[in-house]
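The instructor's notes for this session suggest beginning with a concrete chain rather than abstract definitions. Hand out the sequence below and ask the class to guess, before any prediction is shown, which regions might be ordered.
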Amino acid sequence: MGSKNKLKRFKENETFQNVFQPSREEVISGNFPLKGHWNKDFFKNNHPLVLELGCGKGEYSVGMAERDPNTNFIGIDIKGARFWRGAKTAIENGLPNVAFLRAQIELIDHLFAAGEVDEIWITFPDPQIKYKRTKHRMTNAEFLALYKKILKPDGVVNLKTDSEFMHGYTLGLLHGEGHQVLYANHDVYKNHGSPEIVTSIQTFYEKQYLEKNKAITYIRFKIK
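After discussion, reveal the predicted structure:
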């Protein structure tokens, strides 16, 4: 994507009512006004709240919002030029139940209050295979502790990935720390039984992985 295109998207994001781009200072200082008030002040209902972390183009957030108008969805990514597509599609399709938030995932507990979130989706994260990068792996122990802070007591996390490494690493960590694995499938298109939403929404990259015959894996779990 050219820099002109990026700038155009950044400018357009600023005009979208479904996009929020707080500064890091605003978030860290505790002055982000929607923390604890997403449903009341933005969605204006008391429906369940679901996050997609590292949402990329926002395909999953938009796809889930289309399928479930009685649930609120927020796609979160630090790259606003990417989720511009999802935000624009949501506006064009008249979807009031989806928003996008430009922020770092490690600040998530500054953006949502304790027990504010019902469910989290992590879709095709970078597996960060090199040992030095483990602190950025989105299902490491530190991230799970962050997710637990904002999830309701019975809240669930979903991981969908094309990385066998990420799937195996996460399963091992979950079992090792005593978390509750509700469902695991190492090839959702060959082994049937996954929730319908796992196979009915395919991202741009997922379609590319499938063309290369890469297995798509899925885990649904609760953090103890």
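Then share the key points. The beta strands are 19-20, 49-53, 72-77, 98-102, 117-123, 151-161, 180-185, 217-222. The radius of gyration is 17 Å.
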